């Protein structure tokens, strides 16, 4: 399955992505904003994660590419028939260009269309203002705050949580 947006191609992950993934996602500034990416992040660990994705253990994950180059990943984990949890990261050299918003918009539309979820949840650590902007642009509304593990930081971190209802997504996702 591939999804094309105005500037991006979202496609299945491949072992050939592991080297770029370990460099981009392994950058501490990226890894410390995710719950599960370690720092440092070896190519071997990235390849093992790609294997788990291929076996369906990590939910639905897309490689986000621009001009044939991996710039990040985005996907979701179905939690039950009603909802999924969204996840994404974009490599630091690509921050500030709207790629996260563009990729996540496409992934959310795919999740709602493919699975018929009622809503999608997402969260970001309190010090991740970039993700706060992305989720706001896509129509997510605040749910609250909780504590989540951050492997790269080696500690638990306050996380703001959000929810996007299917009905609200229909309107919010139309406006790029």
Can you describe what's shown?
Residues 8-169 form the N-acetyltransferase domain. This is 50S ribosomal protein acetyltransferase. InterPro entries: Acyl_CoA_acyltransferase, GNAT_dom, N-acetyltransferase. GO terms for molecular function: acyltransferase activity, transferring groups other than amino-acyl groups. By secondary structure, the chain is of the alpha+beta class. The chain has helices at residues 18-24, 28-31, 43-54, 99-115, 129-137, 166-172; strands at 3-4, 9-11, 60-66, 69-78, 83-90, 119-125, 141-150, 155-165. It has an eight-stranded mixed β-sheet, sandwiched between helices. Helices cover 32% and strands 33% of the residues. The protein has one domain (3-172): Gcn5-related N-acetyltransferase (GNAT) (Aminopeptidase), CATH 3.40.630.30.
Comma- or semicolon-separated keywords:
alpha+beta, N-acetyltransferase, 50S ribosomal protein acetyltransferase, 6 helices, single chain, 33% strand, transferase, 176 residues, Aminopeptidase
Number of domains: 1
Compute the average pLDDT.
95
Structural class: alpha+beta
CATH topology: Aminopeptidase
Radius of gyration (Å): 15 Å
Top CATH class: Alpha Beta
Run of helices and strands: EEHHHEEEHEHEEH
Q: Give a count of the beta strands, DSSP E runs of length 2 or more.
A: 8
Strand content: 25-35%
Q: Total helix count? A: 6
Low-confidence stretches: none
Shape: globular
CATH architecture descriptor text: 3-Layer(aba) Sandwich
Query: What is the helix content?
Result: 25-40%
Classified in CATH, the superfamily is Gcn5-related N-acetyltransferase (GNAT)
**Distance between the first and last residues' Cα:** 22 Å
Q: How is the largest sheet built, in terms of strand order?
A: 1-2-3-4-5-6-8-7
InterPro entries: Acyl_CoA_acyltransferase, GNAT_dom, N-acetyltransferase
Domain N-acetyltransferase: 8-169
Protein name: 50S ribosomal protein acetyltransferase
Keywords: Acyltransferase, Ribonucleoprotein, Ribosomal protein, Transferase
